Amino acid sequence: MARTGQAPETRPLPTGDHDRTALKGSVSAPDHQGPALDLAPKHGVDAAGDYRGLDAPLDTSLLADRYRLLQPLARGGMGTVWHGHDELLTREVAIKEVALPAGPERTIVAERTRQEARVTARISHPNVAGVYDVVEVSGQPWIVLELVRSRTLGQRLAHDGPLSPRTVAKIGLELLRGLCAAHAAGIVHLDVKPDNVLLAHDGRVVLTDFGIAVMDGDASLTQTGTLTGTMAFLAPERVTGDICRQSDLWSLGATLFMAVEGRPPFCRDTAIHTLVAVLADPPDPFQRAGPLASVLAGLLDKNPATRLDAVGASEQLRHVADLWPLKDEPAADAVLHIPVAATSSAEAASESGPCSAWSCPSPINYAESGIH
């Protein structure tokens, strides 16, 4: 809405091809050209919480006669995430606009965007960013999402440096719950990394960006010979084309490794060297992980059949979160107490293979989590 007494500014509704020059200037190199990490925000609101000029929208046009675009939150290689307003329900939302390429790939990317919305809408969990709607304007799909006031884990690491083992354990427990919810819905995320983890101002840890996620048994949009994801966080079995729930646990381990060590476990000077390290090398030596070393080593097991499962990871992360005192955290920080099933990691493993379902950890009390 415009300020009182002022006429609203009218601008054309953005499309997937808008502002290419500005987008190109703000996009990091593609994942496959090197191990460099893109720490741009995704669906989250900037950590400063500074909503400059929200009473003066950038655009007065409505998507589907309902969603008003206010201002961009983030731009990246795949498009733009906008801060928006749902005029019907009078609530703030995030709106994801995917940049559609020209030519025959345009139809494929548009359908992938619709699939992302369908996939994410199957999950209802506080540790997964919710999808509210998907609308189309002239063949351009827009995904309407929960607006999570947050900063990404990647942003926090870039600003504050490595985190304490206890803080990382708490983050890991919540991410594990989000992943379990996705897996229970038959969804494999395939792109778990610091940039896709939101540290919400309300204390939640939220998994976001299901743009390359797949549903069990559905490879309809998977191109043969195409490897998608971020090299430094890619499970080794993905290189051979295997899609398995255990791959998300590997990526979780790589994400937590970076959170506590300040670097990915297999980051090398080129993409091919990073890929070789993922396939053949042990993780880089632990320097700061301390009590997290065991769980990280288990999650980064190159064999998905023997990789640490969700129950085992939860038990070890809970132990660190509950029992490991750290000097760099406030004394008033409440200790998490998260009951887990008594079943051991080995007992929970199914004989049907590494991709079978597993038990999930119990919910977290966000007010006590101490994650900001």
Automatic annotation (TrEMBL):
GO MF, any single term: protein serine/threonine kinase activity
Record keywords, A-Z: ATP-binding, Kinase, Nucleotide-binding, Serine/threonine-protein kinase, Transferase
EC number: 2.7.11.1
Residues covered by region (Disordered): 1-43
EC category: transferase
Residue ranges occupied by any Protein kinase domain in the UniProt entry: 67-322
Domain of life: Bacteria
The protein's name: non-specific serine/threonine protein kinase
